[in-house]
Amino acid sequence: MKKIVIIGATSYIAQDVAKIYAAEKNEFVLVGRNRQHLEVISQDLKVRGASQVHILTEDLNQISEHAKLVDAIWSQLQNVDIVLLAHGILGDQRKAETDANEFLSIINSNFVSHASLMNLIAEKMKTQKKGTIAVISSVAGERGKQSNYIYGAAKAAKSVFSDGLRNRLFPYGVHVLTLKLGFVDTPMTKSFKKGPIWAKSPTVAKGIVHAIAKKKDSVYLPFFWRYIMMIITSIPERIFKKLSL
Fold first, then answer.
1. Which of 26, 48, 99, 126 is the most buried (most CB within 10 A)?
2. Domains contained in the chain, number
3. What's the family (predicted)?
4. Per residue in 126-179, pLDDT tens?
5. What b/e readout covers 118-143, taking b as 16+ CB neighbours within 10 angstroms?
C-alpha cells in the first residue's frame, strides 16, 4: 500500500490520477480549497477501493501556511510515497499585462506556491530517504509566445526548479518528476477550440501514473509533444517573433 498526497486534488487530471491509485487500495491525503468538493472526491475514491482518504483544506497561495500544511500531511501519514502537485490556474494574459494582481495570481499559483511546497516536502522526504515528488508543468514553458507568456514563464520556472531539486535530492533516494503537459481537455480549457492534438484527462492520468512507476525524470504528455516542441523551439527568433501565437 502506498501513501499518496495530491495537492490541488479537485483538478480533473488529479482526480483521474487518484482514481487509478484508489483501485490499488492506497491511502490518500487530498489537499485543496473546497472542502465540499474534496468530500465528494473522497467518497468516490473509497468506493473505488482507497483504504483511507484524509482531507486538508488550504488556500495554497497563502505561503505562510505551507509549513503547517506539510507538517499536517506528515503527521497524518508518517511517511509519504508520492506527492503530486497539480494546482494552478490559466489566468488572463491580457489582463495580467496591465493588472498587477492578475499577474501575481498567475505567477504565485503556477510557480511560487509550488516552489514553496516543494522545498518543504523535499526536507521531509530527504529525512525519510525515499519518495517521489511529481510536478505538473506545461509545454507552455518551453518557449514564450504572446498569447500566454506570463503563464508560460511560471511553468518554465517550475520546470527549472524541478530539475534543480531532482539533482539535489538524488543522493537521498528521493525522485522528482517533471510532467510537461500539452493541450488537455479539462474545465480550465473549456473556452478553447479543441482539435486532434488535444488529449483527454484520463489518458494523461495514465501517463502520469506510468511515469511515476518508471521513475522518469521529465516526460511530455502526450508523448508527441516532445516532437512538436522540438520544432517550435528550433524556429529562429527572427522568424518566431513575427508569428501570431
1. 26
2. 1
3. Belongs to the short-chain dehydrogenases/reductases (SDR) family.
4. 999 999 999 999 999 999 999 999 999 999 999 999 999 999 999 999 999 999
5. bebbbebbbeeeebbbbbbbbbbbbb
